[in-house]
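Continuing the batch. This is chain 6 of the set; chains 1 through 5 are on the previous pages. Same settings as before, nothing changed between runs. Recording input and output for traceability.
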Amino acid sequence: MIVDLFAGPGGWSHALTRLGVRDVGLEWDEWACKTRAAAGQLTIRTDVARYPVWPFTSATTGLIASPPCQAWSMAGKRLGLLDQPLVHQAVADLAAGRDTRERLLASCRDQRSLLAAEPMRYLHALNQHRRPEWVAMEEVPDVLPLWRQYAAILRTWGFSVWTGILNAADYGVPQTRRRAILLASRTRTATPPQPTHAQVAEPETLFGPGRERWVSMAEALGWGATDRPVPTVCAGGGPGGGPEPFPSGSRKTLSDARDRGTWKPQPPGTSIILKPQTRGTGWTARHGARADSPADGPAPTFTSKATHWRWALRNNNQANATIRDQDKPAGTLFFGHRANECTWVAEPVTDDTDAEALPEPIRITAREAGVLQTFPADYPWQGNKGQQFSQIGNAVPPRLAAHLLAPHLGRAFSRDDFDLAA
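Output for chain 6:
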């Protein structure tokens, strides 16, 4: 049995399925559980902090844990950093068989902080039966000191342990998502998986295989190298079903993007015909010409005049939002009440581009965001838009998960074994 704590919508589970095994996920969120059910994954809907460990003590070979990151993430208030001493204390106490969670929880500024100590409760109970054989855990980078504490304890129990920060883009994920990882094993030396991709492609050498260039958003979403892509146009509403976040009628400006939920790459050699849009100075200030924007690719044709632009993804609506060109991986995708607009924006690529003629932003769809997390395009996300985006932003990219898990399962796994579109 492989037990997946805080299983979410199934990032780890989908990776295990691709590797030919199954897990049982423990998850509290209603819509994540419904997504898992629709994807055919085994799930116990429960509060991980309250569920007993004894049902797993005799049969668990692997333990996976991705505690909720909201208390620690840069997208939130980051109260987990203030609570970190309490979490360290909880881990130390649980490792010694003392359950002080209730007392420590009363002092936490964010009650979700203490969930990062929950895996130790399971590990301590399982260790009494020489279980599990291996452990894999994932969190935002600021949790790395906590993973190091876990590592020190696990080594005293006979585990080989590795901890560190990995960039998902180095493993073929079209997203520069950096995560703190813990890998532990009783049966093999714990090491991080060999990266398969790099920011700049590397040739094969005497010391090992080469690495392919990072996967771009355009490549992952099926936009051809010479095709001008068109983001999916979807009906109104913010991520929670609220007001339309873009000007009225702006979603009708793309004449070749009428089908909901489908990407429509243009045939080679053709252009997109758009109606000119009028904007004030605010748009130019927010999305004006950028010196680092590449200028390759065909120029779209406007009904009024020709100009040069290309799509880029703006990660959220905060002032310091990451904006990445379509031919690069996305930044870390996250969604929530403080970051609820992840949009495709038209970026000028020449100094003489008329910013007033750029097309309006188009909100990313759940399908597109899921693909950028390396979920299949037809993954059965459940719930309204807000619930779907929340699941996607909190999920482990399955492709990264597969690289992390394959050695523990004795599976050979290469960069060609995980089709982004499958």
